[in-house]
What does this fold into?
Amino acid sequence: MAAAAALWVWGRLRPGARGAASRGRACSSSGARARAASAAAQELQSSGRERFVLEHAAPFSAFLMDSFGRQHNYLRISLTEKCNLRCQYCMPEEGVQLTPKSELLTAQEIITLARLFVKEGVDKIRLTGGEPLIRPDVVDIVGELYKLEGLKTIAVTTNGINLTRLLPRLKEAGLNAINISLDTLVPAKFEFIVRRKGFHKVMEGIHKATELGYHPVKVNCVVMRGFNEDEVLDFVDFTKDLPLDVRFIEYMPFDGNKWNFKKMVSYKEMLDTIKQRWPELEKLPCETSSTAKSYKVPHFQGQISFITSMSEHFCGSCNRLRITADGNLKVCLFGNSEVSLRDHLRSGASEEELIQIIGAAVGRKKKQHAGMFNISRMKNRPMVLIGG
It folds into this structure.
């Protein structure tokens, strides 16, 4: 831990040295890390700033910090590629080619990787899919994650179909944050968008989450022109009497979802529409690494947010990494570069070797994604195979 702290401080005070450390990640060893920490400590002491920096700076692993100084303390882990819905913005109607079960991460492998990331500084893990709640051992996985010292938040993103049945057990196991996908408040339109029934189950799940004390319950709504942009005001009104955070998400391009710029409704367009109805709408403060621009109608219990991945990207403050269900590390949602942690894990790689592999991947992370038009032409997985 002391070595990580010294490396973090070293990188923060000397950008050139941090870049050199980043380039040397792949060949570093525990001895090299200790020597670097010692050298950094000596330099700080000679500058007279050691005590102040070490007392005021939270240590963070150099292996989870990229060349632009972004600290990645948030890990999203996909539990499965399977889903019980067929959302139009997520996957083709016929579904996708699934990875054989033997090639997916086991529960033990998920916990092993999670433990490694948490030890290096990750303090939030979100379980995604596919639909994570169709994995039979999801409650056990949450329970094992809850045991990891240093992990502050265990979250799940779900379509809500199985939520009412599982949520009491998930909460008892340690789940403390929840996002529920819902793109319409009209049952018939729900079936059209997700190509399945289940609207009332999702609504029941939302109310169950509020009853169990989740505050706020985040509701993810992907807004698409010609589908549901006419319901934006209804979703805002949905926050009047419930502690919800309705998150309007700009339509994003992925393989198989037939993305079209004309279908995308920008957050500014949505915001203008909402302000015409509620001119008193208030902007809320947010954390630096937040992906959401948040607002609230005064006296409403809940709030609304906008995820502006396309019109105003937030790459500069990105703190997220992703592990797919088949064990690949993705450092950017829209990037097609992946590293198989599963293969290294199964070939007997040591913890130190895995950290070096992860650090090298994080070090290659680009400053920002390629932009919505370039992304739409790039080869990438369908969203359901990435895990959100």
About this structure: Residues 81 and 98 are 7 Å apart (CA to CA).
